[in-house]
Specification:
The protein is built from seven helices and twelve strands. It has 203 residues and is of the alpha/beta class. A six-stranded parallel sheet has the order 1-12-7-4-2-3, sandwiched between helices. A four-stranded mixed sheet has the order 8-5-6-9. Strands 10-11 form a two-stranded antiparallel sheet. The two termini are 26 Å apart. This is L-lactate dehydrogenase complex protein LldG.
């Protein structure tokens, strides 16, 4: 899977990033109607995703791989649970529109706005995060930047070409008679799954 950058973390400003900003990020993200689930370990993340799958009775899932999913061996676990899981880019292109859930990683959160930043250089990342009605965004809870300016400073360090998305809550529009409507142009639910111990050990 193509990425704008393989290691965003090395460009995070030490004095304007880190887990101390998570509480503010959570407050802002919740205010934008995102759902936040914070867990300690990748194993806990698998259990949380199982809970979401079972509560939705999901039959079809599309997912793009990310390091946190690999650590949790998430894809193998989902397949054992039973739903159809599509991870190949061509399969994602075929099934994303009819999938119940899309799962992808995000690079960092922004405390100021409650947004998450996704390295969406690969087309399949965009499909997974925009077409299914539920998007589960997997975030390292230590990867929180203070504000928009910090986010753009990081992007300026890594970006030469590609595609980067800022996601703030579920899709919303007021195009229809100026009435706020959720989920018309994208997912009706954004679930941010934040993992404290991303490597399975100490945070």
């Amino acid at each position: 899977m193509k990425k704008v950058c393989e290691n965003w973390e090395k460009f995070f400003p030490a004095n304007q990033s880190g887990p101390a900003l998570f509480e503010e990020f959570q407050t802002r993200a919740s205010g934008a109607a995102a759902e936040i689930i914070r867990v300690k370990t990748p194993s806990d993340a698998v259990a949380a995703i199982f809970g979401i799958i079972e509560s939705l009775h999901a039959k079809k899932i599309v997912a793009v791989n990310c390091p946190l999913q690999q650590t949790a061996e998430l894809h193998d676990a989902i397949r054992k649970l039973g739903p159809a899981l599509y991870t190949d880019k061509f399969d994602i292109a075929e099934h994303a529109e009819s999938a119940d859930i899309g799962i992808s990683g995000v690079e960092f959160g922004i405390a100021e706005t409650g947004s998450v930043c996704q390295d969406a250089y690969a087309v399949e990342s965009r499909l997974v995060s925009t077409l299914p009605p539920v998007h589960i965004a997997i975030l390292n809870s230590n990867h929180i930047l203070s504000g928009i300016k910090d986010a753009f400073d990081v992007i300026a360090e890594v970006f030469q070409h590609g595609y980067i998305s800022f996601i703030t809550g579920p899709s919303r529009t007021a195009d229809i008679e100026r009435v706020l409507t959720i989920g018309v142009h994208g997912p009706s639910r954004l679930i941010i799954l934040a993992i404290d111990q991303a490597d399975g050990g100490a945070a």
